[in-house]
Write a structure and sequence with these properties.
This protein has helices spanning 2-31, 46-63, 73-82, 84-97, 159-164, 168-175, 180-197, and strands at residues 35-40, 104-113, 116-118, 121-123, 126-135, 142-148. By secondary structure, it is α+β, with helices and mostly antiparallel strands. The protein is globular, with a radius of gyration of 19 Å. It starts with a helix and ends with a helix.
Amino acid sequence: MKLLSKSIVIAFIITVIFSMIPFSAQCKNVSNDVFRLHILANSDAESDQSLKLKVRDKVLKYTESLYKNASNLQDAEQLTKENLQEIANVAQKEVYDNGFSYQVRAEVKKIHFDTRYYENVTMPSGNYEALRITIGEGKGHNWWCVMYPSLCVGAAANYEELKDKTTDDEYRIMTDGGYNVQFKIVEYFQNICNFFHSP
């Protein structure tokens, strides 16, 4: 009886894993088409968290028109790299203008994000290309958004851009709202994989 029960459990687990393969692949497609923004505050002090949001506003204002001619993630990433020093300068000036002496670092890198919810959009967990801005020690709570397709400001107003620049399957996964369990399963297995692949 115990052997039968174990066999049933194992069969169920294998069925769940195989049924998740197509969904997991679609989630990976999302991470291959989206460019994120990630800002790390110096600390969790109220003044540092407030500064983080001011830096965010200045960076988003500067990059507002940057991606208008971008037709895919590669374009967005290249435009960011070409303007990386100026983006860092904008962020650094805002830090100085607010009376802080923290140094700002800006870089484009692949970052692992857990499942994140942005108003009515769900971004599945995965490794995303992102612009990371680190203020000072970068030990405070972070702020993130989607820079391409643009969801950073007025997310509801940009759903059409999100729809235009992603596939039908990707758009459905991000906006349907009915995949919470699947997102958690994908995130769980990705975290296991990342644990074993980390140095």
